[in-house]
Amino acid sequence: MAILIDGNTTVICQGITGSSGAFHTKGCFDYGTRMVGGTTPGKGGQKDANGLPIFDTVSQAVKSTGATASMIFVPPPFAGDAILEAADAGVKTIVAITEGIPVQDMVRVRARLAGYPESVLVGPNCPGVITPGRKTGTAGRYEGGCKIGIMPGYIHTHRLDASTRKAVGIVSRSGTLTYEAVWQTSERGIGQSTCVGIGGDPVKGMNFIDVLEMFAADQDTDGVIMIGEIGGTDEVEAGRWIKANMQHKPVVAFIAGRTAPPGRRMGHAGAIIGGADDTAQAKMDALRASGLSVAESPADLGAMMAKALAAQVPVAV
User: pTM higher than 0.70, yes or no?
Assistant: First the structure.
């Protein structure tokens, strides 16, 4: 079943003619994602290197192609408006890859998105979302899945490609650690139902609990890997939610940033220790208190998830 996107999702790229937009549109297209077009103001009527139609506005693209999802590679000063343009056009799943959007812009965007209950925002400053497909005979292509973003598609495993017939959902603030968790689970014969990079900015769209609620209800998700970072309280709140609502599926967590000094941003805009409760150790302690399995190192994620799935006792939802 998967969450957010699947093989029927039709996708456009906002910023399709920029270097990043063009490169990753081709990557998604080659993976097997149903890319149906893109937008760049002033270039409507043209086609990109993949033969996809280019439109001036998202509204035109949606009306012409029926797109239900958008991948945003618009430069930071204009990305906030691009998100709202997608929502206004009725796009259901908006994936903002752009890094460096001003916080004030995202505060405005978050407030405005409350008026669009049919749209969900993933990101910004994220690797994207992927529901893995099954590899076909065509080199590099996968069917029945959907990749929206910058992740390497080939490391992901479809549920039915795995000998165990198990699949986990992955939700993460870190792009590279998401790929690490994917590789480790794939190497152990565990598939992924959907992987969601929620992004590392302090003001974003979906948070951990938003995604966990979907994974909890998804029949194709047997367990969850949650990867957090220093800064903020999202991980602690997610732990409390899991303890109260998600005892029927195992959750393995990791918190990055154990060596980060207080007051210094580490990589992501939201990865900054503002107090004792923001540290990696404090979050790890809180998650353990909520009953989660917490990895000391990202190298342990695959092994811990495999062990948790092997010990899992089916519980009716």
Answer: yes
